[in-house]
Amino acid sequence: MTTTTKAQLDLIYRRTHNDYKGVSADGVRMIMVCRGVTCLVPLDDLTPEEVAQRLPKSKGN
């Protein structure tokens, strides 16, 4: 099992277009994802697969 780091979540948030992210009233950063339906999800609640899809791919993979 891979643990998602704060740096990875920060990178995902920075790379997400402003139209697809926001901050809740209590300060939680959220991004829009598709889980059968489109919904806002707190960064800490992203699945490992969602994190992997949103991180830049390293060259050679």
Would you kindly provide a written description of the structure presented here, covering whatever features stand out?
The radius of gyration is 12 Å and the shape is globular. The protein is 28% helix and 23% strand. The chain is of the alpha+beta class. The protein has a domain at 17-54. It has a three-stranded antiparallel β-sheet, with no helix packed on it. It contains two helices and three strands, in the order αβββα.
Record field, number of beta strands? 3
What are the secondary-structure elements, in order, as H or E? HEEEH
With helices defined by DSSP (H or I, 4 residues minimum), what is the helix count?
Answer: 2
Assign the structural class, choosing from mainly alpha, mainly beta, alpha/beta, alpha+beta, or little secondary structure. alpha+beta
Quick tags:
61 residues, alpha+beta, three-stranded antiparallel β-sheet, 2 helices, 3 strands, 28% helix, globular
